[in-house]
Amino acid sequence: MKCTYTITGFPGFLAKHLIRDLVTNQYVSKLYLLVLPSMKSKARKMIETLITNYAIEYEIIETDITEPSLNWEQSTFEKVSHDTTHLIHLAAIYDLAVSYELANNVNVNGTHHINQFAKSCPNLEHYVYYSTAFISGDREGVVYESDLTQPVSFKNHYEQTKYEAELLVEEIKSHVPTTIIRPGVVIGDSKRGETDKFDGPYFILNTLSSLQYAPILPYIGQHKARANFVPIDYIVAASIHLLHSETAINKTFHLTDPRPYQAQAVYSMITNHYLGRQPVGRMPFSLARFMLQFAIIRKWLGIAQEALDYFVCNVYHDCRETLNELKGTGIICPDLATYLPQIINYYKKHQHDQTKHVSIK
Questions:
Q1: What is the pLDDT of residues 24-38, one digit of tens each?
Q2: CA 294, 296, 297, 298 torsion: positive or negative?
Q3: Per the omega criterion (within 30 degrees of 0), is the bond before 11 cis?
Q4: Domains in the chain and their CATH numbers?
Q5: Which of 57, 70, 111, 135 could form a disulfide with 30 if both were Cys (CB 3.0 to 4.6 A apart)?
Q6: How do strand 261-262 and strand 226-227 relate by DSSP bridges?
Q7: Residue 212 CA to chain centroid, in angstroms?
Q8: What angle separates helix 13-24 from helix 232-243, to the nearest 10 degrees?
Q9: In this structure, are residues 143 and 317 in contact, taking their beta carbons and an 8 Å threshold?
């Protein structure tokens, strides 16, 4: 049966891909797209493209999730809450260097207001909230999907506020049919390499692009942290299954790579595929972090200082609940080595189309 989906975070990267697959798989009869006023024009153009050849109603609603009742008129609130059968909350601040005040307002207060909306929906069948695997902060070792233990510290305010937001979502599970999804570091499509922008994991390629003529390209430090990259097509396929699975309700899922490579192995693979070279020697981690204190160097390399922390935190995000849920569906996370060439080829073709970004998603 086709349903009415209310989605935040459009026209963002993941929201766009989710809607495309929901539409093509004919799950949707109507879409409510909750967007910032500044993104309304872009959202309208994008949704018109996504629903071409499909008889789908949609409504773009200017929304401020940081305001009570989402800053809507009462009549709008009542209409959308009555119609909504599936609610997907993606909107968040993903920047690693974000201030706590901004991250808290969007990620925590915004999630509280979406939770209140979810509780008001009389016909709601499923609420899916996107957290992040990195609410684990500085924890090392194995982190399970059932874990929601506050770490001693967080690497940045993004992680902290996503943890605080997930606590709020956990509280309403007894009242609302809820699924929490914790993605790893989302990368481009595993078949075509396609991505919307070169932020997050692309900081490695940004840095190599700036340093490609350097006589040596050293490893950074001697740490054995894992790099948990997951392609967008896996995230979308798994999400759509979870969104329509009764056995996924009131559970939390790590959409992470079950066999992640060590970060330095990934760096070596990327250097080899992108530049035809191998890293030589090692730069002390403390020196790399010191150099990235300077804005001019961060801008030149296209990397946030906070990104370095992911090279030293040796955590494994266990995803056995996800693997059990997806068993028999044919939905699997591909091995990074098998699709990394597509990711790099896409970057090579399009790297000059965009400015370098320093946030992570």
A1: 999 999 999 999 999
A2: positive
A3: yes
A4: 3-186+229-255 (3.40.50.720), 191-227+260-353 (no CATH)
A5: 57
A6: antiparallel
A7: 29
A8: 60
A9: yes
- Does residue 231 or residue 359 have the better pLDDT? 231
Q: How confident is the model at residue 303 (pLDDT cuts 50, 70, 90)?
A: confident
Give the whole-angstrom CA distance, residue 230 versus residue 252.
Answer: 17
Listed in sequence order, the residues at least 6 apart from 192 whose beta carbon sits closer than 8 Å to its beta carbon are 342, 346
Q: How far is the C-alpha of 51 from the C-alpha of 133, rounded, in Å? A: 31
Q: Which of 92, 69, 89 is nearest to 81 (CA)?
A: 69
List all residues 6 or more positions away from 323 whose beta carbon is below 8 Å from its beta carbon: 258
What pLDDT, in 10s, does the model give residues 122-153?
Answer: 999 999 999 999 999 999 999 999 999 999 99
pLDDT tens profile 243-291:
999 999 999 999 999 999 999 999 999 999 999 999 999 888 888 888 9
- Residue matched to tokens 């902290």: 160
Instruction: Using the structure block, give the residue that is written with the tokens 């809507």.
Output: 72
Judge contact between 239 and 18, C-beta under 8 A.
yes
